[in-house]
């Protein structure tokens, strides 16, 4: 996306065919297929927590490595962080940089699920983007009062609602655009029967979070790329802000685990650049990377593809960093 106008500069869906070769699909999966976003959703939970005044970037939490939700009830569910750890003091900054599920849940719990739902709705989830693409999905975002058990917690880190890739990139683009949502736009202009060209109207815009919150989030998301889970998205000499996401896919048996004990993944990276003066926002999703490979995560499967596409975008759009932007300086 063009960060400020929401124009879709490029969109492509590719698959590997039976012969093992990559080919472009006939469908626009970015608009018509929805999935649970996984850890990319932490961007919106942390932004909502900061924007509501419930916390700052440096607010600290005592985060356990394991949390049991609703123990002793039919809703009991054990939640774990991506890496094992004892109770650890984490700032909100570090929670997002290192993508802590439990830390995100703890921080967002202060504003409550009702308010978080309202923020998610404002970020564009649960409704059409206005693109008017045939077969476009609205994803799903249930009312807060319909969430049960652990769903009230897992929604903070990307489970319990679903999003298309188009919705997800537009939502992250809101942060890049100074806190203002701008609807994606596919048609730039039309030509009438007299040959006169007419610019298409801008899509819907509305403020979601304050400029101050957006600046803080950009600072944190830049650190995600420089020192957190998104280091493989780095581009030499220019700053990148972004977030990894690794989501489990639901299986035919209604759980996230196949009958044989294996899982299927959805690996995503969404980012924008230059971080201090964004021009373009890019999303890469890998549907079902090899579950036995280390390259099944957003930071290992999708982030390197983002970096490759970003380099092309820099060249095609003549993007130049500001004088004091040197990217992730070692």
- Rounded to an integer in angstroms, the radius of gyration calculated over CA atoms is 19 Å
Q: Please tell me the overall pLDDT.
A: 93
SS field, number of helical segments? 9
Low-confidence stretches: none
- State the oligomer: single chain
User: In this structure, how is the largest beta sheet organized?
Assistant: 3 strands, antiparallel
Shape: globular
Quote the beta fraction. Answer: 15-25%
Strand order of the largest sheet: 13-14-15
Distance between the termini: 29 Å
Measured as a percent range, the helix fraction is: 25-40%
Order of helices and strands: EEHEHEEEEHHHHEHEEEEHEEEH
Content-based structural category: alpha+beta
Number of strands: 15
How would you characterize this protein structure?
This protein has 330 residues and is of the alpha+beta class. It is 28% helix and 19% strand. It contains nine helices and 15 strands. The strands form seven sheets. Strands 13-14-15 form a three-stranded antiparallel beta sheet. It has a two-stranded antiparallel ribbon with strand order 1-2. Strand 1 and strand 2 form a beta hairpin. Helix 2 crosses helix 5 and helix 2 crosses helix 8. The longest helix is centred in the C-terminal third of the chain and has 19 residues. It is globular and about 70 Å long. 45% of the residues are buried. The mean pLDDT is 93.
Structure summarized in a few sentences:
This protein has about 325 residues and is α+β, with helices and mostly antiparallel strands. The protein has helices at about 30, 40-50, 90-95, 100-110, 110-120, 150-155, 165-175, 210-225, 300-315; strands at about 15, 20-25, 35, 60-65, 65-70, 75-80, 90, 165, 180, 190, 195-200, 205, 240-250, 265-275, 280-285. The chain has 9 helices and 15 strands.
